[in-house]
Amino acid sequence: MSALTLINARLGADARALQTLYVEDGRFASAPGAGAETLDLQGKLLLPGLVETHIHLDKACIMQRCQLSEGTLAEAIAQTRAAKADFSEADVYERGAQVLDKAIAQGTTHMRTHVEIDPQIGLTGFNAVRRLQADYAWAISLEICVFPQEGLLNNPGTEALLCEALALGAEVLGGCPYTDAEPSAQIRRLFELAVEFDRDLDLHLDFDLNPEGMTIGEVIRCTRHHGWGGRVTIGHVTKLSALPRDTLLAVAESLAEAGVQVTCLPSTDLFLTGREHFHNRPRGLAPLQHLHACGVTCSLSTNNIGNPFTPYGDASLVRQANLFANVSQLATEAELLRCLSWVSSESARLLRLSDYGLTPGCRADFIVFDAPSPAAVVAEISPPLMGYKAGRKTFERAQPRLLRP
């Protein structure tokens, strides 16, 4: 692998601080390597690659196969279940590849994808995504989280399939407790399996705007009981947005103490929740700014692209950060930098990436922007101009040129 020297790079908000970085054997180094190629960034902004913590490659890009009328979570699950009956390994691979192509060009260099496992689909989606994992390793590190979208305890045969996928190398175990008659029982069983297979957990949780019936307490209890702090993530958790301030902060402190992490999925959560309100419709996003302030590790992510859960999407994590900033009314430089961290450094912390960053020893996964500052990347939804994975260039984007008369 060739060495690379990056000159005239900006790493922060100070445009005058042009810096030089060195890459050797796919990692940042403290000195130039022999015969290094030089890349002059001409004052462009250099950031670590973006980190997608929660996406569904297996059911992406299926809107043309579905019929939306209510736009609810129940309808999305039912419509996807019907479409899933015709999924083949080749089909899942092709649609997943479409999303990966977009994500790479949007600056994503690491991704955790959730894959549905149940007796209907079997391991078809898992096998397709494993092929994507191998075929796209040149540009993106793909981590597979297998989970029971159709229920675990209520769906005989699902647990055996989950265990088979874990034995075959699925890196993470997921869950969807609200799909079982006893959500807390699913949570407890998933923790037992996570301990048995030594896997991190990533659960879809508390996905509505009714503060009653929260299962987050059971997740906190199980995390403490099994000593799984730092290895448990809960996604959506939109019920948190319906809690009064004092109650929310008490929950946030418990999450932080237990080591339970939180992912917000802005596009999906906004599309599916609050439909029962005609006026004064709630925003319904997990309040990451308050969770973060209490010490909870947080991330923003895409969740779905082009399906009944989210009919939109271009796989831009910068766009998700901007959307969250808009809805949460975050605008100061510090707030925008925090939004950026929730798709980069904090996301990397959530996924326990030990070699993430721009310092010597870190993997040379980085992206380049034509933006005056990192905060401006979020404010302006700046597209990256180029990206590198392990020191190898993976994409480039030409800047638009105005044709003045």
Per DSSP, the total helix count is 13
Secondary structure tally: strands: 16
Q: What is the residue-mean pLDDT, rounded to a whole number?
A: 96
CATH level-two architecture of the largest domain: Alpha-Beta Barrel
DSSP strand content: 15-25%
Rg, rounded, reads 21 Å
| Range of helix content | 25-40%
CATH superfamily placement of the largest domain? Metal-dependent hydrolases
Strands of the biggest beta sheet: in what spatial order? Answer: 6-7-8-9-10-11-12-13
Tell me the major beta sheet.
Answer: 8 strands, parallel
CATH class of the largest domain: Alpha Beta
End-to-end separation: 46 Å
Report the CATH topology name of the largest domain: TIM Barrel
Q: Provide the number of structural domains.
A: 2
Q: Which consecutive residue ranges, at least 5 long each, have pLDDT under 50?
A: none
Helices and strands, in N-to-C order?
A: EEEEEEHHEHEHEHEHEHEHHEHHHEHEE
Shape estimate: globular
Structural class: alpha/beta
